[in-house]
Backbone:
């Protein structure tokens, strides 16, 4: 089993980055956990600043279904890796020593499965000691849509407010006759 390492998190995110590139203008923030970009991805934490514990592993194919109920959130996204140097990185301190290269098959598309727990322990706070855990698993796979395996209130709220989600339309205005009929029906 891979060893967990502490990752320093500035401003609520850390990266799974290809050669350190952060094309944030291409980010899809819709699930607010795993944020794919035109290359690599950002991972959104609960804490604003501090340390989190992360384990990373690369597989040759998809992992078995996660039967580990200790993970509160599990999201899968596709990640494009143009250079083949996909690594876990602190956005302030760079690549994290001791964590696996997540693109051992070289350049191409990978699936990234992000497991998280503890994101609601100290939301938007500072924590010098890790209160959140992440398991990052990758494997080569064609590009496909994001898949939420295990959700949370945080993810559900983000999805409900995603910008590409159709917005409710206001009810059409009623004529005076329709409104009078509505009132009579409501009175019984």
Residues:
């Amino acid at each position: 089993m891979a060893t967990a390492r502490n990752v320093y998190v500035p401003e609520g995110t850390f990266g799974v980055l290809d050669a350190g590139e952060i094309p944030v203008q291409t980010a899809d923030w819709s699930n607010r956990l795993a944020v794919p970009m035109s290359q690599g991805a950002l991972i959104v934490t609960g804490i604003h600043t501090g340390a989190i514990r992360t384990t990373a592993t690369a597989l040759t194919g998809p992992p078995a279904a996660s039967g580990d109920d200790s993970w509160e959130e599990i999201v899968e996204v596709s990640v494009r890796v143009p250079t083949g140097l996909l690594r876990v990185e602190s956005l302030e301190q760079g690549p994290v020593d001791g964590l696996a290269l997540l693109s051992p098959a070289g350049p191409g598309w990978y699936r990234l499965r992000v497991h998280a727990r503890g994101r609601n322990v100290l939301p938007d706070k500072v924590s010098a000691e890790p209160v959140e855990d992440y398991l990052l698993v990758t494997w080569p796979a064609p590009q496909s849509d994001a898949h939420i395996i295990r959700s949370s209130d945080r993810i559900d709220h983000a999805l409900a407010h995603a910008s590409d989600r159709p917005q409710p339309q206001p009810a059409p205005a009623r004529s005076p006759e329709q409104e009078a009929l509505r009132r009579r029906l409501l009175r019984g």
